[in-house]
Amino acid sequence: MKLEIEILQREYENVLSGYAALLTFRFVNLCVKAEPAALLPAAIMVKGEEKKLEEVAQVGVKSDDQMDVYPFHEDLIMPIGKAVMEIHPEFKQSLETIHVETQNKDMKFLRLTMPEVNGDRRDVLNTGVEAFFNEAKTQSDQSKAKYLQRLAKEIYELPKDEMDEARSQFDMVYDNHVRMIGHLVDEKKQEIEEAYQRYLQKKQEAESLQQEQADAEGREVTTQMRMEY
Description:
Elements: H1 3-28, E1 43-46, E2 49-52, H2 53-56, E3 57-63, E4 66-71, H3 77-87, E5 92-100, E6 105-113, H4 119-155, H5 160-228
């Protein structure tokens, strides 16, 4: 294969990889689980200067649906909370305190809790997944057309079998990319569905407990009435 064709193919692969990386980042920001990467866009204003989160705090994952933000100074809590609110208003924020044994003092930090995936949120998340996928697919299709045009200028003097091989290589790159982003979609939808099922199970357990308590109170009232008579 001509060197120019190999270089063009690598460039094409890098472009498609960029689309896949952007799609992955967007899916992370359709928050179901607690993922620190979702906080990367946060811009914290400190004395009029914009800072990245990693410059002013550390982030730790507490559980599947919670992560904690430990500021380097307590005065940074409010700016951090404001910055998080701007990019993820759906997060529940709470101010927590932890005792640091080595320093023998209490330290305040920000706890972020992901919203439950109820029916409405499930629909919103799945709509977002489809929208981001369609955009990535459209970009990929447009890039394919563009690079096939560039490829045609490089192979027009080659023998037919070499022309067919070059086109086949570019088609394979595209097909592999589409399969990969399709897999990303399937994974994200599965994540959303699992979170929705956990929400339904939790709701059912709460309703069952409430019913059991109501039944117990009803039996107690009936017993008391019988005793009175």
